[in-house]
Amino acid sequence: MLVHGSPGDGRSWVRVIPLLADRFHVMAVDLPGYGRSDPLPEHETNRTAAMGATVSVLIESFSEPVRLCGHSYGGNVALHAAIHRPATVKHLTLLEPVAFRALKLADDRHTLAAATQFFSSYTDRVTGGETDAVSDMIDFWFGRGSFSKLPSAVQAYLKASAAKNGVDVRASLSETTTCAELRTLTGPATVAYGDASPATAAAIARALARLLPNSETCTVAGAAHGMLDTHPQDVAALVGALPMR
Q: Is pTM beyond 0.85 here?
């Protein structure tokens, strides 16, 4: 089961799915409010946990434990889904999750403070109507000037989705996951990040690896936050426990 980031939908995995479909029954979900899924109730509290609960219901529809993978904000959602149903997750793979809560639990105060300052400002701007601020978020994860290099149609999509993304980012900053909840995830877990990504991605991965009882970190060579598109073979290998290239 594959969980996309924000903004996006199940089609985010279009380059990864064919590399897994010959060995697995693959489901790429549309999170609430994205793709063809209904949104969460208005003013839903603990938004990420609520999204995770919806994914856990889908997991229960499978006849056996699943390999669960989430990318970016979808990694946060996948983590919460696993907490809801730990016995139903055979392997958990988190690709650059924006799990700022892990930084707090691991006492990485420096990284958390910088991330909180940047992303709190970003969410205030985009939810307040300053949609052009989405370029700052893209440049943060992909490198300075990355937004300006995107096709105009993609820029327009990101600007149109900026306010919704801001709500998700704000939710990621306000999660309340506990160390005790993370310790219930005793199955194998992999937390991956690209070596071309900002230091924040690596810090979150290391923090989660310390908090999850049976986990490892993995670096995807040459990849940044857009690894689903740029490194689909490596992503498929991580999800399906296949040899990486």
A: yes
Record the tokens describing residue 78, joined without a space.
Answer: 């996948």
Query: Cβ of 152: how many Cβ atoms within 10 Å?
Result: 7
pLDDT tens digits for the chain (245 residues)? 999 999 999 999 999 999 999 999 999 999 999 999 999 998 888 999 999 999 999 999 898 999 999 999 999 999 999 999 999 999 999 999 999 999 999 999 999 999 999 999 999 999 999 999 999 999 999 999 999 999 999 999 999 999 999 999 999 999 999 999 999 999 999 999 999 999 999 999 999 999 999 999 999 999 999 999 999 999 999 999 766 66
The contacts of residue 211 (CB under 8 Å, 6+ apart) are 102, 105, 106, 179, 182, 183
Query: d(Cα 215, Cα 206) in Å, to the nearest integer?
Result: 10
